[in-house]
Every structure is written in structure tokens, then in C-alpha cells.
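job 3f2a | input accepted
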Amino acid sequence: MKEKMESRKISRRRFLKTSANAASLAALSVGMQTKLYAAGSDIIRIGLVGCGGRGAGAVVSALSVNRNAKLTAMAEAFGDRLQNTRKSLKNRMKDQVAVDDDHCFTGFDGYRKLIASGIDVAILVSPPHFRPIHAEACINAGVHVFAEKPMAVDAPGVRRILAAGKKARRKNLSFVSGFETRYGGNSRKAMSRLHNGAIGKIISIEGIYNIGYLWHRGRQPDWTEMEFQLRNWYYFTWLSGDHIVEQHVHQMDMASWIMLEEPPLHAWGMGGRQVRTDPKYGDIFDHHTVVYEYADGVRFYAFCRQQANCFNRVSFMVQGSKGRMTGWGRYIIEGETSWDSGRQREHPELTTFKEMFAGMRAGKPINDSVAMARSTMLAILGRMATHSGQGITWEQALQSKKVLAPKRYTWDAVPPVLPGQDGKYPHPIPGKTKVL
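job 3f2a | predicted structure (436 res):
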């Protein structure tokens, strides 16, 4: 097991080269000082970028763990969503929500105004496409970052996250991820046992994220095509990365953690649009299956599906030479040794913000950038394999120059994908679609 771990550490260094020796950069940041709190007080001024349900939930978690934290600014593409969320948060956490009208920013450039409003921490929960743009701007301005998963929708975006993470280390800023599993008490205990040989040599990993349909906000006649896609961002690859990236990435992160951040050699898979074919569902698939193959023979089998009236399961399993570990939230080890983590005592997101704020106060901010970029890239690699139907290496995917983005960000701009005469959006076709 020790030899295996050392081998993975060497492989991990190849990935870290992209972010320029994270260990030495972290060492340089120790002892550096930065402005953490408002006007030298204990108040932590928080700005929320992305005012949907996930954004509201993250704010509640952040405010719940620190009574000195206050929400002081909000940014959202759509004014109606911003005001609805502001009202809801105000009703729920009145004493900690102090967002004046002049600190409500809408439109594509709202995040810039929010950053300039004098916040200490930004919670970034806009559609994943915007994560690298927003994170980069925050770090450049000296603002601590909590970024919801995933971190990007394409390889150039992942590289921007790595660069922002490198700069965050130099500036002694937090760069904390929404990969909350890594902050869970049960998952940390399970991972420690796994890495200490509780199930022997790891042979295979299985991640399943099969659920039904999700939300859809419809289309209004006065919306431009850009507004329709932004309001229904989940169903467009350029905005969400497809659901293997937006949702299944949690289990990609778990697999990456198990493998000590070692990237796979390559991946191949299959997927398509089998039942969710209505034009309103954009261009993403409704199912993906990916096989990731690693240098030492380990294989990670990833399955995800969003189809109605089907067998649903969200689970995770690691098979080893001396036993196996199963679970998601609660973990059980069976084999030569037996162990049950029991129920989760505290929601991992609460732990995330507790540790983030503690790191800020101690002058030792948390920087998750390499792990968060690594896990996001693992999911993007899987999507590239399923959309194309080809076997793709890690290096091919990571070095891809293909950017999923419009030429400009305005409401009358042309999105990267447009419907044809039949009203349907052209979607990837395995065997025909080129991703490299």
C-alpha cells in the first residue's frame, strides 16, 4: 500500500506542474497577512454571486456558523431572482442580511460591482460556465472565494482555476470549494482508513448517480435566446458542462480523493439523449457511462442518468483486495476489518465554512484549487468521451483549447448553440462529434 501511495504521489506531481509547485507556493504564504474583516472589525462581509436556491443555501450555511458574518451584497443576472432570494434570506436570517438596494447588482457585469462594493468573501454559485471568470476576478481584487462545484465546463476554464489558485496562494487568500464531501466527518474517517489499507489494494471504484427529471423554467415570448438559455442553464453544455459535470462531479471528486489526485491514463464511455428529447432540454445527454483506466490497473466505473420512472440510486463503492467500502454520507467497510461510520453528525457544508473562516482568522487560508480543478477535469474528460464516443487521454483533455463560450455576454448575443428549423438544438452524436 505504501509503494502504491508513493507511486500516486509521483503521478500527482505531473498534474501539479500546471499550477506551478503548489507545495512551495503554500510555504511562501505562511505568515503573510491580509485584510480579512471589514474596517478592522470582526465582521465578515459576504457577497453572493448567483441567487438561486443553491446560492441561498450556501449563504444560510455561511451565516449559521459565524454570527459575525453578514450578507452585504448580491449579484444575479436576473433582478427578479435576486429580489426573491433577498426577501427569503431576510425573512430567515434578519440580523445577518444587510443588503441595501444599492448593493443589489444585476446583469452580466453585476459580479464586478459586487466585488468593488467592499466585500471580504464571495460565494460563487452562478452557472458553472462563469466560475473561472468570477473566481479570477475575486482573487485579482483580493477577495476570499468559496466556489460551488464544478469549477468549469471546459479545459481552458480548468486552467484558469489553477492559475487563480496559484495567485490566491501568493496573496494569502482562501480558495475553498463546494466539494463538500471532503469536509464531511464520516468521509474523512473513511478515507483515512482506506488509505491506511483497511480494504487492501484498491481494485475498482464504482460511482452511481441515477435520478429522475429536474427543474425547468419554461420559455416566455419576450425572452431572447440568451435569456432562455441562461434561465434554463442546466440543459446547455456550455453553461452546465452537462449533468455528468454539474452533478456527477461529486463522485468524481470522491474517486480523485481515493486515488490521491492521480489522473487516469484515459477514459472511454457511452451516452446519449434517449428519453429527454424535447427541444426545451437543450443539447445535453440524459445518461452517461464512463470507464476511467489508471496506470496501476484500477478502474473507475461512473454511471449517471436523469430519466423519469427508472430505477434510481446514488451510491459509491470501492473494491479492494481485502474487502470493500460502500456508502454515501454513511460509510461501511466489510472484509478483513469491519467498520460503520454511522450517520453524519454535521452537514459537510457547515464544516466547510467553519474551517474556511477559521483559516482566514488564523492567517492560514484554505486553498482547494488543485483538487477542485482535478475533480472537475475528471468529469469533463468523461463528458468528452461520451459526447465523442472516443477514447481520450487525460493529457489530451487537459490540454484542449476548445472554449465553450459566446463571443460576448449581452442579452442579444448569440449563444454557442442555436435551435434548427425544427426547433431542436443540435446535440452531440457519438462517433461524429469532435471534442478535440
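job 3f2a | The chain has 15 helices and 15 strands.
job 3f2a | closed
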